[in-house]
Amino acid sequence: MPVDSTASTACYTNFSNAAACKPQERDYQNPIAGVWEIEVESRRTSPALNNPFQLRARVQGVQVEPSVIELPSVSAGEPTSANWTLTNTFGPVAVTGQGGPPSSVHAERPTIAEGAQQEYLVDVPEGATLFTARIGNTANLGADLDLTVFRGDVQVGQAADGDSEEAVTIANPPAGMYRVVVDGYAVDGPGTSTAYDYRDSFSAPSLGTLATPSTALALPNGATATLTGTVTAQSAPGAGRELFGELAVVTTEGAVVGRGAVSIGTVN
Ligand SMILES: [Ca+2]
Ligand SMILES: [Ca+2]
Q1: Is the model's pLDDT at 51 over the cut of 90?
Q2: How sure is the predictor about 46, in pLDDT bands with cuts at 50, 70 and 90?
Q3: In terms of DSSP bridges, do strands 256-267 and 68-74 run parallel, antiparallel, or are they unpaired?
Q4: Ligand 1 centroid to 19 CA: how many Å?
Q5: Rounded to the nearest whole angstrom, what is the distance from the C-alpha of residue 152 to the centroid of ligand 1?
Q6: How far is the first Cα of the chain from the last one, in angstroms, to the nearest whole number?
Q7: Gap from CA of 245 to ligand 1 centroid (Å)
Q8: Cα(120) to centroid of ligand 2, in Å?
Q9: Which of 32, 38, 43, 170 is 20 to 30 Å from the Cα of 134, by its Cα?
Q10: Is residue 226 a contact partner of residue 31, using CB atoms and an 8 Å limit?
Q11: What pLDDT is recorded for position 190?
Q12: For domain 62-101+205-267, which CATH number applies: 3.30.430.20, 1.10.357.10, 3.40.50.720, 2.60.40.2310?
């Protein structure tokens, strides 16, 4: 099964948009174990008669510990350091940490009856970079729940196919009150219900930052290093919400080879 498009319009040097797909380099996160076959194709419109090339494939991965750093209590505006231990379990890499604004998260595991609707209100602030609502992991594996997101009265997103794993993601969402509606479309007949995981989140620079040094750490196979990030929360999240910072460990070529997180309890 190809993991990329094999269309004759996609991803060729001197032809397609390299910003949309890099013809000379690709990376695949969390690759399925097994034998991968790499096919290099010279497009018929190649401007060069001869196209010598070299092919290099690398298997990379960095273990990040702890996976979640718990900060039970921080002071608003005050930086707190967060240390991760990186262990390179695969081929040599040079990596940096990539942080960004934290997310304000509300998560719970409610129960919904067939035919019922449950609503969640999320007040998304000015300048938010991402809004996500997600449901799934139903106790009844055959249940079909659906997800619809409104801003005011306007529907701005929906995920409603035949299962219960549904997510809506909105980049740069305009500020406003968002209403997430979970629809118990089908469980196991009238009168039945199921528990499910619910999670909504938004990221915004006004919540704070997770900053990381820009100097790359060189990690040969088996090497360990400490990555020290700085977490600054600017304000307490609303009631029922918590702040969550996400760290990506990125190679100098741009591939994500590990992930970590910071969970912030209270902001004083
Ligand atoms: Ca569904
Ligand atoms: Ca689905």
Answers
A1: no
A2: confident
A3: parallel
A4: 33
A5: 23
A6: 52
A7: 29
A8: 19
A9: 32
A10: no
A11: 95
A12: 2.60.40.2310
The CB density around residue 151, as the number of other CB atoms within 10 Å, is 19
Ligand 1 midpoint to CA 184 (Å): 9
* Ligand nearest to C-alpha 145: 1
C-alpha of residue 183 to centroid of ligand 2, in Å: 13
Please give the full DSSP string across 217-249, using - where no structure is assigned: EEE-TT-EEEEEEEEEE-SPPPTT-EEEEEEEE
3-state secondary structure of 70: strand
Ligand nearest to C-alpha 164: 1
Partners of 143 in beta bridges:
none
Could you say which architecture CATH assigns to the domain 105-202? Sandwich (2.60)
Give me the residues near ligand 1 (ion), CB cutoff below 5 Å: 144, 146
102, pLDDT greater than 90: yes
pLDDT at 49: 86
Q: Which of 60, 48, 180, 171 is nearest to 108 (CA)?
A: 180
The rounded Å distance from CA 252 to ligand 2 centre is: 34
Q: What is the mean pLDDT of the segment spanning 230-242?
A: 92
Q: Distance from the CA of 124 to the center of ligand 1, in angstroms?
A: 25
What's the gap in Å between 138 CA and the centre of ligand 1? Answer: 11
- Report the pLDDT value the prediction gives residue 173, as an integer from 0 to 100: 98
Q: Where are the domains of the chain?
A: 1-57, 62-101+205-267, 105-202
Q: What is the pLDDT of residues 16-44, one digit of tens each?
A: 898 888 888 889 998 999 999 999 888 88
